Amino acid sequence: MKDNKFENTSYAAHEKFYSGPGNPLTRIENTETINYWRHQRMYSMFQPLVNKNDKWLTVGDGIGTDANWLMKKGTDVMASDIADNALKMSLEKGHIKKFQKENAERLSFADNSFDFVLCKEAYHHFPRPYLGIYEMVRVARKGVVLIEPLDIGIQMPYMVWLKNVLDRFDTKLIDKVWKNRYSFETIGNYVYKISEREIEKAAMGLNLPAIAFRGFNDYYSTKLDLGQPTSNKSIFNKVKSKISRRNFLCKLGLIPYSLSVTVIFTSKPSTEMLQNLKQNNFKYIELPENPYL
């Protein structure tokens, strides 16, 4: 067995990324930027799940933005990340109240330590993401919330059909159409996008009661300076226009949403929560019980 396992290389790369020089807390502190607007919009998507009486854990929280939002909603929240340098700064600035250095693939918490676990745009960084799901499910009494990009290779039926046809001739032909089939980020990780079907299978394998999804679109481009204030209408309107255009195509059923708020319930949600989810455009799927258990 190799000593230099890739997951260790990945862990080290991410820890180094959040331990670099400068002030990493700008996304929390610069509340007038387009980037801040984008992320606040993502948080608002799972508002129906937020209850002041619940205890939350954020996983892969980098600089503590997720915990900061939940803290402002009045919840008891623990921030966590594989690197704690930025979280220490966030604590000192009062952006979060508590944190713990944690590897999402082997959390140190006892079973059912939290009501909900939130993992926003971090799951796709994990070198072994399914281990992360199992660990988050293990420590969550009520559920796990993922905010992640969707895999169009599974979510878009046309792409699946086209791949099946082209694979008969050459398994590399689909790459000419599906440009980001193999996506890597400069930090070194493969971008592990999710699909509803994969989540459904993982939940069924664990005999969990239900899952829920809310698709949405965002817009990000390295060609635009999204650190600009929202008062910069030229850039801000372009971002909103791109989102609106994609929303229109999604409503027509021509393309899938680019991201999803995914909820893996570890216990059946209350009637009130279920109503809130449906009122906020979540697709709720109650899973069948294993008849042999």
Question: What's the gist of this structure?
Answer:
The protein has 293 residues and is α/β, with parallel strands linked by helices. The chain has 11 helices and 8 strands.
CATH-level-2 architecture = 3-Layer(aba) Sandwich
**Major sheet characteristics:** 8 strands, mixed
Report the order of strands and helices. Answer: HHHEHEHEEHEHHHEHEHE
Query: Roughly how many Å is the radius of gyration?
Result: 19 Å
What can you see in these coordinates?
It is a single chain. The mean pLDDT is 92. Strand 4, helix 6 (129-139) and strand 5 form a beta-alpha-beta unit. An eight-stranded mixed sheet has the order 3-2-1-4-5-7-6-8, sandwiched between helices. It is built from eleven helices and eight strands. With 293 residues, the chain is an alpha/beta fold. It has helices at residues 6-17, 26-29, 34-44, 65-72, 85-93, 129-139, 152-155, 157-166, 196-205, 233-251, 271-279; strands spanning 55-58, 76-81, 99-101, 114-120, 140-149, 210-216, 259-265, 283-286. It has a single domain (6-286), classed as Rossmann fold (3-Layer(aba) Sandwich), CATH 3.40.50. The chain starts with 5 loop residues before the first helix and ends in a 7-residue tail after the last strand.
Give keywords.
single chain, 293 residues, alpha/beta, Rossmann fold, 8-stranded mixed beta sheet, 11 helices, 16% strand, globular
Write the topology of this structure.
Elements: H1 6-17, H2 26-29, H3 34-44, E1 55-58, H4 65-72, E2 76-81, H5 85-93, E3 99-101, E4 114-120, H6 129-139, E5 140-149, H7 152-155, H8 157-166, H9 196-205, E6 210-216, H10 233-251, E7 259-265, H11 271-279, E8 283-286
Parallel strand pairs: 1-2, 1-4, 2-3, 4-5
Antiparallel strand pairs: 5-7, 6-7, 6-8
